[in-house]
Amino acid sequence: MRVISAIAVSVFRESVRDRVLYNLVLFATLLIGSSFFLGQLTAGQDVKIIKDLGLAATAIFGLFISIFIGIGLVSKEVERRSIYGLLSKPISRPQLILGKYAGLVLTLAVNVTVMTVAIYAVLAYMTWTTPAPIQTAWDAPGVDPALLKALFLIFVELTLITAVALFFSTFSTPMLSAAFTFGLYVVGHFNADLRNFQSVVESKSAATLARLLYHVLPDLSAFDVKTAVVHGLSVPWGYLALTTGYGILYIAVLLVIATLIFSRRDFK
Amino acid sequence: MSATGGRSAAGTIAAVLAVAVCMVAAIGLQIARNRLYAGQSRETERILYIQSGTAAKRLALDFDALWADVYWIRAIQHYGGDRLGSTREKKYELLYPLIDLTTTLDPYFTIAYRFGAIFLSEAAPGGPGRPDQAVALLAKGIAAQPGKWQYPHDIGFVYYWHLRDFANAAKWFERAASYPNAPNWLKPLAAGVLTAGNDRATARALWSQIRQSEEEWLRKTAERSLAQLDALDAIDQLQAVVRRFPFPEGTPYSWEALVRRGVLRGIPLDPSGVPFEIAPADGAVSVSTRSKLFPMPDQVHSVPR
Fold it and tell me: How far is residue A158's CA from residue A223's CA, in Å, rounded to a whole number?
């Protein structure tokens, strides 16, 4: 466990050195700048749009970090040939994979936490400067704790995408890993359509195959509750728990396969 | 300062100057292009690349709500540009598709449905004059959020104010009143519309309720409509005065003449502060086309028919 956490901290330090967290400055600028301009453009929908923008930006920035750092976690070590040095130390290959993954998850956690604070700060300011009668027209309170549910599921989705990127990076080049991960991200959002495929096709085998793909491919649309929380609709805790559980198990599957592949790789 | 340091500082200054010159030149070209080919950029502004809401929802992946916001801002700009712009022909042809896309991407975007109801049905030049599209949009809202009394209320309003179909208006107000969370003024309103649909008192009651809304643009629309109703009352009174003091044949009617005769103390102004018009031929009183209240609603009578 100590080895894994040591690798995780070193991955986090490396991402800080690589100025990954600079994206937070861009995020804050985007959010504060938008809150300033949107009031003039949106016919009273500025708080709704700030929430949409904040949640979407958290997901997009996180997606870029997950993909572009995730694909380099292993392949960079191989390209630099530093993998030989690492493996000569008392570190097992599964520990290396898990440590690298935990490090990037830590980076994402810091990133999402700072973004969450920034979103709430902007929303608190907007709530403070908006007269109470206008606030009654909002679907949900400005500083709404329910937003945390959407942010939490975004974080879980990002950790899943990181696992996908890491999985591809154990056997593929960075370029291909990025393409595969982004492809799976897109497919993951269309995945829910496969569930109802039998009502569209006549062939039983095609319907079965679609159903199988629905279960095998990651169901990423389930992590999206942004619209619901922004409009003050309920997101049950049970839904949150089941989706999180699904995410964790899917990540576990990916990490186990990634570890297996990485363990069998020959670096000679 | 060493020679190398001096050379490096001079190089930096030269680079900054080059950047500034290039930037200013680029901005100059941009302004020139916009001036010379103004029509071209206006044409592209009015193109809607994606027409299908379902396709847009698919393409948006996880970000449909954000994309809905983008279309919402475009709808506001399109409406505002056509309504306030002096050069554009007031067509509003993208208003419905933009709001339709917005509400497909985010079916809970309540204000987009209500905004659509008010402005799609408004007659030219204030809107495209399409109450049918407003009703279709609100029906879509009811399908998305069946528990909201505001949508049937707004359909009732479109039937009442724009289509002058009081039976249907009353039916929709009644439907809105049947919702568990509906306000208690809806039931008497439904009855009032059915019995005395075309009178100003009912219209005033309806607009006064809408004026209570927390949405600023809805409040402003209600305030304008209430001012129009006040203007209609004033027109009735002025028309009565003109009829009581007819001009000799061949003499054109004018406010100045009525003031000179001591009938009026001054030129009458409508609630927006613009003088009323009086037709020189027959003394018919109307709101000026320069007034913010123009065009006026038709056929709303001061007493129930």
Answer: 10
